[in-house]
Amino acid sequence: MHTRAIALLLALAPLACAARVSPRGPGDTPSELPAGPAIRTPAFQASREVVIGELCPGKAAGRPAVSMLFARRALSWSRDSSELNLLVTRGAVQRFTVLSFSGKRAGIFTAMGTTELSPASQAAVGGYAGDLPCAEEVTAAQCMALSDGCGLALAQVRPLDPEETLTPSTGAGCVQEGKLLVDTDQDGRAEAFPLDAFLDEMRAPSEEVLGESAPAAGCQARFATPSILGGTDPRFFKGMDLVGVLDVDGDGRNELVIQFRYADKRTWALYTAQVPLRLSLVGESEPWAS
Predict the structure, then answer these.
(1) pTM to 2 decimals?
(2) Residue 12 to residues 2, 4, 19, 21, 22: CA-CA distances in angstroms?
(3) Residue 197 covered by a domain
(4) What is each CA distance from 172 to 56, 211, 222, 224, in whole angstroms?
(5) Which among 66, 137, 147, 221 could disulfide-bond with 124, CB atoms 3.0 to 4.6 Å apart, if both were Cys?
């Protein structure tokens, strides 16, 4: 019995070794297996906590100041003014990156405290170093038409390094056949959103804007664009501007900042895209509310 067992083990040994042979590398010809459909799965990342505002070089008695409008905290967005002010007074937000009309970094605003501009408006005050938001000569006229010399300002809440400045990835949009073309999920393909769908029946920002896959763009996409939609009632709604397209919270999806101009005020609306073809309104805030 012992001799037969040894013989059996010797006979099975080559089979055991054969099971451990390394697999072949890729061949010279394509596989004959049918390829499956492409799946759009953007690599979304964990969101960072941020603040979005507007810097104006001389808004606070001739000093630079930032009107803070939106904050991303944990898993949700907020536009609560008291919460935004506390972030500055407690030192959780200190350095704002100010973007130019083209979406490049124009300068850095360092917050040193807050000031009350009116009973309904407080802003961060401090020092500013860099170029003015509309300093780019080629786009200066368009920038002034959109922002009157002010610029989009972004800050990270409690960065690991207090000297760190937020550098978001930026996108672009353009208008074609009455639609705003913008790549919401950063997959290289634009989505198209009807411009009139951004307005509800009261000419206020719509809670939701549904889009469709866009054809090849025949327009020049830019970070910001004034007057993407004209006003139908000059005594009330005067127009709509694209302030910027950017992934401010780092989750792999672009946010849209849209400006609504009215006869007596202007407001900023922040839209996010949880899915590529649906823009959801985070909120609406009035910079430098009176």
Answers:
(1) 0.82
(2) 16, 13, 11, 15, 19
(3) yes
(4) 23, 16, 5, 7
(5) 66
